[in-house]
Amino acid sequence: MFDVQLRKMHDSLVLDLAGSLGREGGEKILRVVEGLPQLPERLLLNFGGVESMNTAGLGGVLWAVRKLNKAQKQVFAYGLSDHFRKVFHVMGLTQYIAVVEDEPAALR
Amino acid sequence: MRWRLRVLSLSLIAVGIGWIYLSNYVRLGRSPFDYAWSVTLTNLGGGLFIGLLIDAVAGFYLRPFFRALDRLGANQPLGPQERQAAAIRAMRFPERASVLLVGISVGMILVHRLVSLRGEFFAILLAEERRAVLLSSMTRDLVVALLLALLLFTFSQRLLKPGVAACGLQELPDERRFPLGLRQALVVLAMGLFNITLFISAPENAPAARLIWIYLPPVILTATVAYLMATDTGRDLDAIAGRLRMLAAGVRPDLFKRFAVTEQDEIGELVASINTMQNRVERELWEFERDMAAARSIQTEMLPHAWSLPPGWQLTARLFPAHEVGGDFYDLIDLGGGRYGVAVGDAAGKGLPAALLMASTVSLIRSHAPFHQRPGDLLAAVNRMLCRSLPPMTFVTAAYAIVDTATGEIRVASAGHLPPVVGGRELPIISALPLGVEPGVVYEEQVCTVSPGEAVVLYSDGLIEGADPTSPLRSAQWIEALRGPLTDGESLAQQVLQPLIPQVQQGTLQDDVTLLVLIAPQPYSLAIRSQEGAEVQAAEQAARYAREHGFAARADDVASAVGEACLNAISHGNRFRDDLPVRITLSAGPDWLEATVADGGDIFTPPESPPDLAVQMDSDEPIRGWGFHLIRSMADSVSVESLPAGKQIRMRFRRHADV
Description:
The structure holds 2 protein chains of 2 kinds. Chain A is α/β, with parallel strands linked by helices. Chain A has helices at 23-34, 55-70, 82-91, 103-107; strands spanning 2-9, 12-21, 42-53, 74-78, 98-99.
């Protein structure tokens, strides 16, 4: 099971992610982003509730990130465990997603 | 008891007087009614006086004894001194009362004759004609007194004996005794005097029918006394002999229960001696058992009770000594690098000598094992040391194995010991001389491999030789039962030892029994359906396995790699076909954890480099193809292998990831 909750913070949109981020989870994130009437200036991905992730799920995330990057929007990720940071690093996600410590750091 | 003594005293006097009258009637033809009333009164009064005097003396002399019995009967405490005083009085009473009876009787015989003959006593003694009758009458009276004294002694002793026993005296007071020989001499004396009396006073040509009335009472009385004395003595001796037999046989019940000294004679002395001996035996036994318990405790502590083996490896060891301590031993020595020395041995002999030998052998093996990479070398070194110190005809059989838990390789050498069993097969090992027999022995070693789920079993000969001839342990059945795959060493040991459990519980083992079972871990296997999301379950299981098997630091890497491999297997290998499962195995060694993920798909050549993410980000295509790259990044080695019906990805993880 994977759950995505939306929060709006000024000009930013926060996605609180929870559960196992697999293909289904990635597609859910993509659907949320594609369904937005207007892309936010910053998309904050809160991975604090994510228990596991795989490349299929991250593929969906990257697809969403690609859409935002093309629109010159920023994407931040926080709440990542050391292992998830390692996975991000291995896949090169850090080139497209700014990994920060927490939400205030992303909003600064 | 007081009343019984009184009745006894008066009964004996009545018997004595009756016999005197009967004797006079038979010898002299005087019926009891022919006597002057004053004589009859004197006779009866004298008898009554003696009876009452003895009764009074009994009441006075035995007062501490009766008081002690009353207190014992009322369950009141009685000090050892009071017990001793009471018992001594009661033991002395039969002898003293008997002497008193004889003494008073002699006095009364003289007084009676002097009074009844009114000054003619000495004249009659000088006159030959009447002297025989007077002397025979006085002798007869003395015989009566002696017999009555013996009866009094015998019956009063019997009467008082239970009470004396209740006092629980365990030692005989060191003073004059009333020996058994003296009692027998008195019986013989009484009968001898009686014969003299009869010889002197028997009327000429007296019919045998009359004489028999004279003979019969003393014969019956002396026979009764002799019989009672003999049976009492015999019963006491039987009881003592029984106790000695128990002591000799080592029977524990009643061992520490003491006989009470109830007689002041040789029997009493014997009982007191037995008690002294029992005290000594008890002390010696207590000291021996204390020492043996300490020895057993030390011996037990010498053996390993807890061990740390690589995850999945199981060691179960059981040792049942036939005696308090034994010569069998087992040991497990961590040699480092996932290698372990496993030893089972049997020191020759039984009990303490074997235990001492076992202790020194275990110490030698334990201290030398880290310095020898080959089991044969270790046995040779231990043999050299033992040969220097052991006396002749002393030896130890031992099997020693070095188990490499990383590879499953086992090197075994045997010094006159039974061959180890590996994977349900006895190793065809060349066993050399036992340790301590001859220096310079070369111990050949056998090398084999224990596969996952198989057991290495070492044991002592007590396991086989102690079993019933019909037991499976006597045949090859039990060895076949050790074939893998095995999962539970405890159950296996219990199953093997089951035929010997009754002997262990009853303490009837003839020889020490030792069994050591080392089971190589079986891979953990798991199958998932080829459905989207099932890989999450496999990843979680893999992470848990890694944590449980000492790879906690790599648990996330293992989970990610296994999850990706499963994802690949579900989507590309089995193409989401529900009838094709994805099979995962996990196995852990001391340094490596290995995972395999198998599916029904075709083998593929893994890409050498990861996809170009920049290109993927610029395109509109789905972003994929990262799975194998992630696996390679998480695992320390990855390979793709072909299977008869599919392929598998094999991933290995070091215990500690490279920094």
